[in-house]
Every structure is written in structure tokens, then in C-alpha cells.
Amino acid sequence: MAVGIAPSTSENSAQYNGRITWFVVLSSMVAATGGIIFGYDIGISGGVISMEPFLKKFFPDVYNKMKQVSKISNYCIFDSQLLTSFTSSLYIAGLIASFFASPITRTFGRRPSILIGGIAFLIGSSLGGAASNIYMLLLGRVLLGVGVGFANQAVPLYLSEMAPPKYRGSFNIAFQLCVGIGVLSASLLNYGVEKIKGGWGWRISLAMAAAPASILTVGALFLPETANSLIQHGKDHQKAKQILQRVRGTLDVQTELDDLIKASDKSKTVKHPFKQIIKRKYRPQLVMSIAIPFFQQVTGINVISFYAPILFQTIGLGASASLLSAVVTGVVGTSATFLALLIVDRVGRRAMFSSGGITMFISQMLIGGIMAAKLGDQGALSKGYGLLVLILICIYVAGFSLSWGPLGWLVPSEIFPLEIRSAAQSITVAVGLIFTFIIAQTFLVMLCHLKSGIFFFFGGWVAIMTGFVSLLLPETRNLPIENMEKIWRDHWFWKRFVCDEQDFEKVET
After folding, report:
1. Which residue range(s) make up the domain with 177?
2. What are the residue ranges of helices labelled H in 163-226?
3. CA 66 to CA 80: how far, in whole Å?
4. What's the CATH number where 35 sits?
5. CA 51 → CA 115, 134, 191, 194, 203, distances in Å?
6. Does some domain include residue 1?
7. What is the model's pTM?
8. How many domains does the chain have?
9. Are the C-beta atoms of 322 and 313 separated by less than 8 Å?
10. Which of 124, 283, 371, 459 is deepest in the core (most CB within 10 A)?
């Protein structure tokens, strides 16, 4: 049984008027396209680096190892630091870009950051599709990383601020749903172009990232800025009120507007949000901004997302079958994320975290056990065991897509007060990208040395993170984003930090 205290689901959310309008739905759909560019890149890289023509042109050493499978362990065929640099260079670029995105998002608004992200991704995809050497390929990846850094920093904030409090979870999960759609689209495209004669199908895969990037870039030109952002960096409260009335579909928005103005006035007293966030009263938010993205990456999902075709080849499936298997897991992940979108504001965040964690842990232990018992350094799994591993991976992906996938973006974007929101979101994105980079860069080495133990490694982290959430994360369902500090004051553990700091400040003044 979890120890945290959940706030009433209607105590605060009922005070705001409004409904879901087509205006907010369309605006959120355009913004959530930022998730498609992220998911597309995750899905495309693993498929492209499993294509022989691509490897032969840019990574001939790996290609030669593939032709010597009888001499090399199943787990070590793709062990190449240059190859992993192709995947991971995007994430180190995104890490750096996210810190540049923070002041832009805070000073100029959410929309400019989304626009910059779309343009950078558009240029990067063009370079990747036209690459004639490894340097051009990596430069394209770096620009894709800049696009991901800006989009991931701004889009979840935009969605959480635009959404009605009662439905904030569903609106925000649209971002993760788009990530899943991006992964699935990339897997389908990889499967199709792999069969193109002449071996240039990988160029289509890389260049087609321009499609969602174009939608995001053009759409960002027409996106309205959020009322929170308009109030934060301007004095025109009437314009913010008009946006809020359009978004909520009612003229009676004064209560919500007053809360936004109050939060903005407080935020304007903070000149250096990165210094502010280390204060004791923001300790719970700081811990969550680091812990949640860290745990999201050590679930092992990137093992599946980045390297699904390679992983399936490791257990003995051919190139085409591996790409098709990646499509299957993509369908499962997208379907489960859509289900999460429907139930998150009814079931709550904590219950979904816990059930997803248990599902992932059990499936990872079973996959690791099968591979340890049935897959050696040479040879392959039998068709029966190969199918069983694929089913278990699908169960694992479903568990992630119902929990740590969408909630890893949702919860951080909704728990930060306005005065530290852009800084805290940058920390969240940066931590996620740091560990995405580390796992992307080290996974193939880990697979080579740990072999089937890689699943036990990530399964152990899943057990730890499930316990962490049960003990330390309070429920945020249906609570207005500007009233979120209540959950920390009521929590059995975090109240000692928040309340003590508030008492200290009263004495000091």
C-alpha cells in the first residue's frame, strides 16, 4: 500500500469553469506533433543501422562482422562505438539545446521554442537523407538533437498549460501518444524501404523525418501562446483573458485568471530560477525533475526502441523479420498509450505507475531467463522461443506505454510552480537526454558483455523505481497546475521540507 496522501479529485478542479473546445484540441494536436519527431527518430535509427547498405557505406567494420557471424558472439556483432555515436550524438546535442531552450521559453514563450525545434529538425532530416559521408550524417544528427531539445522542453509545458485541469493528463499524454505514432511510422517505413533495390532505402527513412517536422514548424506559426506564458512575460492581462476564454469555451474564467496572475507575480520575484530550484522548499520538485526522467530511461525501453531490429536479429530473426517485429511492438506501444490517454484522469498517476512497473519487471525477468537458458553465443532461438520472447517484449512495451512512457512526461510538466517551471522542465529534459545518451552509447557494449543479463539489469531498476513512486510521489490527478504545491504540504515525507522552509521564510521576514 502506498504511503502518499492524495488530494481530493474535485476540491480544486471544480472551481474553474470551462470545457474541452475544438480550439484547445487543435492547438494541442499541432503542439503534440513535437512528440512525433522525437518518436520517429527513435524508431528510425534502430532500423537504419540494421540495414546492410547503410552499414556498408558508413560503418564497414560492423558490416564485415555481420558476415563473420560464425566467429563472433550473437551478442557482440553490432558492438561499435562509432555506430552508437550515430544514435547517441542526437541526445547529447538535445541535452545542450534544452538549456538554451529554457530562457527562450521563459522569456519569449512556449511557441518560439516549438518553432525553433521544428526548423532545426527540418534541416537535420534534410542533411541525413542527403548524407554522402559520416561527417554529414553526424551533423544532421546533431541538428535533429537541437530540434528534440527545444521541442521536448516546450511541448509538454504547452500541453499542460493549455489543458483543462480535469483533463490535463489526457492532453499531456497526447505527446507520448505522438512519440508512439512516430516510432510506429518509422518502423513501418523501415520495413518498406529495406526491400528497395539499389540499397538507398535508408535515405528515404532519414529524409522522411522532414514530414512531421514540417507540420510542427508550419503549425507553430499559427499556435496561440498559453495564458500562463502571456501573463508571465507581459502585462496584457486582457489578452491572456481572451485566450483563456477561447481555450475554456466560457466567459467566466476570472478565478483561473486570478490564480495565473498570482503565480506570475510570484515568478517575477525570481531572477535566477536555476538558483531558486535548489532551495529547500523546492526539494520535492527538484528530486522529481531528476528521478523521474532517470528512471524512465533505466526501464530499458531504449533497448527496445533504439535497437529493436538489432535485438531481434540477436535472437536469430532475419533482417526483414526483425523490422517486422519492430512494427509489431510499435503497434502495441501506440495502442497502449492511447488506452493510457483514456484512463489517466480516472485511474490516477500512481496506480498506473505501479501496475506498469510490475508488468515490466515480470516480463523482463522472463525474457532474461529464456535468453540465458536457450540462446548461446552462436546459433539462434527456436521459432517457438523466438515468438515467446516477442510476445513478452510486447507485454513489456504495453506496460511501459501505460505507465512510465506517458507519465514520465506528464508528471514533471504539471508539478512545477511557474517561477521555476521552465528551469525545472529543462532539468527534466536534460536528465532524460543524458541517460538516453549514456544508454544509447553503452547498450551494445553492455549487450556484448552482460548478454542475457542486460534484462536482469534493467529489471532491477524497474523494481527500485516502482517502490520509489509508491512511497514518494503523491497523486496529482485533477488538481489545477497552479495549486499543485498543496500535494507536497500534505505528503508524509515532503511536508518536512516545504513546511519548514515556509516557516523559516516567515520568521526571516
Report:
1. 22-224+270-503
2. 168-193, 201-207, 210-222
3. 12
4. 1.20.1250.20
5. 32, 16, 10, 7, 11
6. no
7. 0.74
8. 1
9. yes
10. 124
